[in-house]
């Protein structure tokens, strides 16, 4: 699948056996890695929204110093994670999980969650920066009820915005492709892809 067609193709990236080796996946529950492929390098980082809130964001709303420390922490870990990844700036940056999909819903001010409007939505860095500033300026109670924000996520959504903004800035990404699919779907797709690939190779040898 060509990178240029990814944004307009509803199929997950791993539905094609020719997966490019540097598709970065951001999962804000604490895992930052790469899509599985023959040449991929996987990095798992325990730097999710809950950990960030517990360790650094103690005030409501967070202080400027707390936000600064949080960004430094995420930037440091991101830099280490991609140290041996070549040309990651030219890849498609994909975000999945609750924080990413919530931000996409908030941008569109969706009154109810609509997977069809979330999946393959493009979140621009500038929009993420604006959302982050808005969320950080409000207390948790004031975030509740914002259009598109799922109930209960007001506790961690600001931390998620910090993570996403920092990672995108560190990697030089101007936009992020939102996926409504989760890790379990990705594992199943990858297993199916590899099985088909093995069968194809086996039939070619006969």
CATH topology category name: Nucleotidyltransferase, domain 5
CATH class: Alpha Beta
Report Rg: 18 Å
Sequence stretches where pLDDT stays below 50 over 5 or more residues: 1-38
Strand content: 5-15%
Terminal CA distance: 27 Å
How many structural domains can be distinguished in the coordinates? Answer: 1
How many strands, what sense, and barrel or not for the largest sheet? 5 strands, mixed
What is the CATH-assigned architecture? 2-Layer Sandwich
Which secondary-structure class do the elements indicate? alpha/beta
CATH superfamily, called what? Exopolyphosphatase. Domain 2
Q: Largest beta sheet: what is the strand line-up?
A: 2-1-3-5-4
Number of helices: 8
Apparent shape:
globular
What is the helix fraction of residues, given as a range? 40-55%
Listing every helix as H and every strand as E from the N terminus to the C terminus, the arrangement reads EEHHEHHEHHHEH
Overall mean pLDDT: 77
Structure overview:
The protein is built from eight helices and five strands. It is of the alpha/beta class and 206 residues long. The chain has a single domain (3-7, 18-205), classed as Exopolyphosphatase. Domain 2 (Nucleotidyltransferase, domain 5). Strands 2-1-3-5-4 form a five-stranded mixed β-sheet. A hairpin with a 3-residue loop joins strand 1 and strand 2 (31-34). Helix 1 crosses helix 7 (157-171), helix 2 crosses helix 7 (157-171) and helix 3 packs across helix 7. It is globular, with a radius of gyration of 18 Å.
């Amino acid at each position: 699948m060509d990178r240029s067609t990814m944004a307009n193709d509803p199929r997950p990236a791993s539905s094609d056996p020719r997966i490019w080796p540097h598709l970065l996946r951001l999962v804000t529950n604490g895992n930052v890695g790469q899509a599985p492929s023959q040449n991929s390098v996987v990095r798992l980082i325990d730097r999710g929204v809950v950990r960030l809130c517990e360790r650094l964001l103690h005030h409501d709303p967070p202080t400027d110093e707390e936000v600064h420390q949080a960004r430094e922490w995420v930037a440091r870990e991101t830099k280490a994670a991609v140290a041996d990844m070549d040309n990651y700036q030219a890849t498609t940056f994909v975000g999945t999980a609750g924080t990413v999909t919530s931000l996409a819903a908030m941008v569109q001010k969706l009154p109810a969650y609509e997977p069809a409007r979330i999946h393959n939505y493009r979140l621009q860095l500038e929009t993420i920066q604006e959302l982050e500033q808005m969320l950080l300026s409000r207390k948790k109670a004031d975030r509740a009820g914002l259009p598109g924000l799922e109930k209960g996520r007001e506790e961690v959504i600001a931390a998620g915005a910090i993570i996403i903004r920092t990672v995108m800035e560190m990697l030089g990404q101007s936009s992020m492709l939102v996926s409504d699919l989760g890790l379990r779907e990705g594992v199943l797709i990858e297993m199916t892809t590899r099985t088909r690939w093995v069968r194809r190779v086996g039939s070619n040898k006969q």
